[in-house]
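Subject: sequence -> structure tokens, single chain

Hey, anyone have a minute? Need the predicted structure for the following. Not urgent.
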Amino acid sequence: MKKKLLAVLLVGILSASVLTACGGAKKEEAPAAEAPAAETISDEDAAEVAAEVVEGQVEEQVNAGVEDLEVPESTGDMSVIVGSWGIAKMMDAEGNEFTLEDYAAANGVDAETLRCTYTFNEDGTGAITLAGIDTKYVWSVDEAGEVTMQTAQTPIKMTYADEDDLLIIQDPNTGITTGFGRE
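Reply:
Had a minute. Here:
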């Protein structure tokens, strides 16, 4: 779906630029020198290029201002949190466990578009990687194991569950609890 949308967007941009470039010549003007032939690329390659451009723009927007954030002071043990964490298990509000693949299939999407990784660096910075986009943040942990991340837009809170070695987050809108394990 994402590639189709990007391909349509790219085709629209290319069409607009071609129509704009071709629309204004008068008949009495001398023809312009012949331009060298452009290299032809496949629709798939064009969609890939468009996706990279769009992802770069989105990443730039979601991270605008994050460099101005100060790393908060931690009162808990940061070394327990440092590293990369990926989705290990999910549970609905009724306590039923399921996998990311099950959730994706039930919602008609590719599991890879939902795969999410949190990376916590020793210096109190980090990034969430989702759908190829890195959203940067600063983070801290308190003595109770509550991890607070601050992106340029919003705070995110997780709890470290020592007994399971998981970072736990709950979506208040869906009631889904996600456990992130070390990668």
